[in-house]
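Troubleshooting log. The previous structure file for this entry was overwritten by mistake, so regenerating from the original sequence record. Sequence copied from the archived sheet and checked twice against the printout by T.R.
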Amino acid sequence: MSSSTASDVVEKCEPHSAHSSGDHILVIDHPATAAVGEGPNCPVSPAMAQREITETITIPLQKYPRGYPLQAAFQASESGWSIYRSFNYLHSRVILDLQDELRCLEENLEEIDQENSQKQRVGSRKDDILHWRREKEESPRASIIETIRCKLVSYDEIVSKARDLNTFQRPSNRDYRSFRTWMWNRKPLSYEREEEFIKRREDLVSLRQGREWSGFDGLVESCLQKIHCRFTHRLFATKELRDKTNDEHVHYYSQSRVEKLVGLIVTVIIFILLVIPVVTMYKLTVIGHRNSTLDAVGILIVFTMLFSAAMSFLTNAKRHELFAAGATYCAVLVVFITNFNNSSNNANGVLLNH
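Regenerated output below.
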């Protein structure tokens, strides 16, 4: 970098906490106003430099040739459409074959051990090897153990991979239907048998990672698609997502923006579920009717059920988490009921004394 441009670059240096040698992290947050390496005769305005830094390249789907290039580009364009076969049946067949091969090897090893036990060579691996060296032959026990070792490595690897594959989540109904609809409309593959994988739904897995509010997120995204317009598309999709395709039936939404909307909705729901019962119980306490406490308990039961239902629908909370959240919510409302009743009793006592 020339001296004329180096002065225009602002570098913020902070010590790296992971190194005690004084290393620094350089953060450059202002572009230079002259082209690097071109000298002062080729000035670049700050607006042009900022445009060059922020400019991105997005290859739209229509640029890919029809066939596997288009199919791969579409499935890679959205994590929800990363849907592939898991081949659970083939995994099971391979595991079963290896299992039976290992069983046969295990029986052969037991037979060899029984033969060697009579010759007292089973108690020492060294004696067994020396015996077969004198015979100028390979030890049957060492040979079969080596075969077992190789088979066990393959067996353990396939079993572990099959277990990991079973932890993948299945594609949601919305993602699966969108994928099937696109394939029906575009028909990217020319051979029908190669398209049949999408029909094996029980054998499909999705590479999309689960989100905290996966079910509710899907409902919000479905609602956004139904009310899709230019405003919602610009609000919930980045420029790169809008440039991915010109297909009027395919709409991309930013997951981070949708999650912010979901977070806002969930916050409002929680606020409502906390404020309404508190205000209602306060009004019942102010009235001072003899059935006010019973009515407040009824309100507590109803809103605790609503809160638990909201937690179950809006989140992927586990059973013990739902139980803990419901108990905490109920305890908070009980504290309000107790405080209101005590305040009401104290106020009535003061009035009676007067």
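Residues 257-353 form one domain. Archived copy saved in two places this time.
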